[in-house]
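Incident log, support desk, overnight shift.

02:14 A customer reports that sequence design results differ from what the structure should imply. Their input is reproduced verbatim below. On-call engineer (initials T.W.) acknowledged and began investigating.
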């Protein structure tokens, strides 16, 4: 078990217009207050984060009087009394962490047969493509947001979206949502889900948090509170708690917070969907697979035209292009988080995979080729092609694009993300390289459409071509442009 031991100081709740007027208590103060009320020993003066992974707890409060009780949890050394924990008051006080000693928790049941609400994050700039993709898979109530798409559908859609989406980074299944003011509210949110009905206590968990304009200061502390809530629900149900694994958890739980609303998700994908399962070798700055697939689709390449990447690096464009052309499901080579959930229907899943296999084609109708001047990059691309089962279909050669003597076909789509620079000397080298790139495009690729992804806004001017399209795209945090240049004969400015 790997528990997170170092946490930031617990946050204070900054007062908001409609927040309670009294000064909100820090969790440490809440603990002392609770100790006064219950007669329990408080961890007075200690940082609650230092206490967090050592003290036993009863629903949101760490109670020193549990120490040394029966029912030691063998995996984390926590001791607990074995009695049924008290329930969290549904009323609360606004100061957080208040425990009512009477009711037993009755978390919401998850209905595997109901229509579910999902959210799929994706690279910014690809939201509409993702929405179209999800609509094709049968998603309803599609809601395009910046950086992702909300949608609804049966649990079957979870299998299909994970298996077939080329653009989504994850498929998150919404479990619950509530307004919040304090960390205690987030703890309560975590106690409203019947976790033992979703996965076995033997599964390891990780809780992550993202926030937009939240007044709560420490996302780590929120993650800790929600993790506590999950563990407390398990303890209540079966006397055991799941272990935390921050590196390769079986189950990922995600909280998304706006300034007043917190949404609780279970991540049905597990590892990010851009990890297709074929990347064996890598080079510097490989493109994420879902971004590469999205750019191919944005370019309008139809799978029946030649495709060439003259600076292919680890071959991401080439592999994604071949998968698109053959209709291969991007998730066919990997496992998913939902396979560890209790409602996982292996027979249904096998059926969907089988269906996808049956629909795939075996041969390309136009060549897909790549080139890179770096021998390591070429080797990496070839390894990845082998892992994807596509090495017999895609040709990669070592060579400098400036030495290109003939395009691989009379027309087609050239796509690449050229090297980019940060330091001055790199920028100077690129300023020399771009005109040469422009010359090769004009001289060797007339009749083609070239699409280049770059964060370097000097590129069109320096390659001396006028872009016919200029699409804003984020490559991670990097603000980029995806330029199209139509290379007709004599296409100089
Ligand atoms: C940003 S990387 C491309 C990454 C690639 N799209 C991937 O996903 O792995 C740029 C690549 O351009 C290659 N390159 C740079 N200058 C080149 C040139 N003159 N001819 C051919 N390849 C070049 C580099 O070796 C590097 O692999």
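02:41 Re-run completed on a clean worker. Output:
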């Amino acid at each position: 078990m790997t528990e997170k031991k170092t946490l930031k100081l617990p946050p204070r709740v900054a007062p908001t217009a409609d927040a309670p007027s009294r000064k909100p208590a820090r969790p440490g103060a809440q603990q002392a207050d609770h100790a006064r009320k219950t007669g329990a020993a408080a961890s007075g003066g200690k940082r609650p984060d230092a206490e967090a992974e050592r003290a036993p707890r009863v629903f949101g409060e760490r109670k020193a009087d549990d120490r040394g009780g029966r029912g030691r949890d063998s995996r984390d050394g926590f001791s607990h009394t074995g009695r049924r924990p008290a329930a969290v008051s549904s009323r609360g006080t606004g100061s957080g962490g208040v425990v009512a000693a009477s009711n037993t928790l009755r978390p919401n049941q998850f209905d595997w047969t109901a229509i579910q609400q999902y959210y799929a994050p994706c690279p910014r700039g690809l939201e509409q493509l993702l929405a179209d993709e999800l609509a094709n898979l049968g998603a309803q109530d599609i809601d395009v947001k910046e950086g992702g798409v909300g949608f609804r559908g049966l649990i079957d859609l979870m299998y299909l979206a994970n298996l077939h989406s080329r653009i989504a980074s994850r498929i998150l299944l919404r479990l619950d949502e509530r307004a919040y003011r304090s960390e205690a509210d987030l703890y309560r949110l975590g106690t409203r889900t019947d976790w033992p009905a979703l996965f076995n206590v033997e599964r390891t968990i990780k809780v992550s948090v993202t926030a937009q304009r939240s007044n709560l200061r420490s996302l780590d502390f929120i993650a800790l509170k929600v993790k506590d809530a999950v563990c407390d629900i398990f303890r209540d149900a079966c006397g055991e708690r799941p272990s935390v694994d921050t590196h390769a958890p079986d189950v990922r739980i995600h909280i998304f917070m706006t300034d007043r609303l917190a949404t609780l998700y279970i991540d049905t994908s597990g590892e990010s969907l851009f990890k297709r399962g074929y990347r064996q070798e890598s080079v510097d700055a490989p493109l994420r697979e879902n971004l590469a697939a999205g750019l191919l689709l944005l370019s309008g390449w139809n799978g029946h035209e030649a495709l060439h990447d003259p600076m292919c690096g680890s071959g991401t464009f080439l592999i994604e292009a071949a998968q698109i052309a053959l209709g291969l499901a991007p998730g066919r080579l990997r496992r998913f988080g939902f396979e560890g959930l209790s409602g996982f229907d292996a027979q249904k899943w096998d059926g969907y995979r089988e269906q996808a296999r049956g629909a795939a084609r075996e041969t390309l109708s136009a060549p897909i080729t790549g080139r890179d001047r770096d021998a390591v990059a070429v080797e990496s691309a070839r390894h990845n092609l082998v892992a994807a089962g596509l090495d017999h279909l895609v040709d990669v050669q070592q060579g400098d694009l400036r030495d290109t003597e003939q395009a691989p076909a009379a027309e087609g789509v050239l796509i690449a993300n050229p090297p980019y620079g940060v330091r001055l000397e790199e920028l100077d080298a690129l300023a020399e390289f771009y005109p040469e790139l422009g010359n090769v495009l004009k001289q060797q690729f007339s009749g083609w459409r070239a699409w280049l992804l770059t964060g370097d806004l000097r590129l069109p001017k320096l390659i001396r071509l006028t872009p016919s399209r200029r699409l804003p795209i984020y490559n991670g945090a990097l603000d980029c442009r995806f330029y199209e240049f139509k290379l007709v004969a004599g296409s100089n400015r």
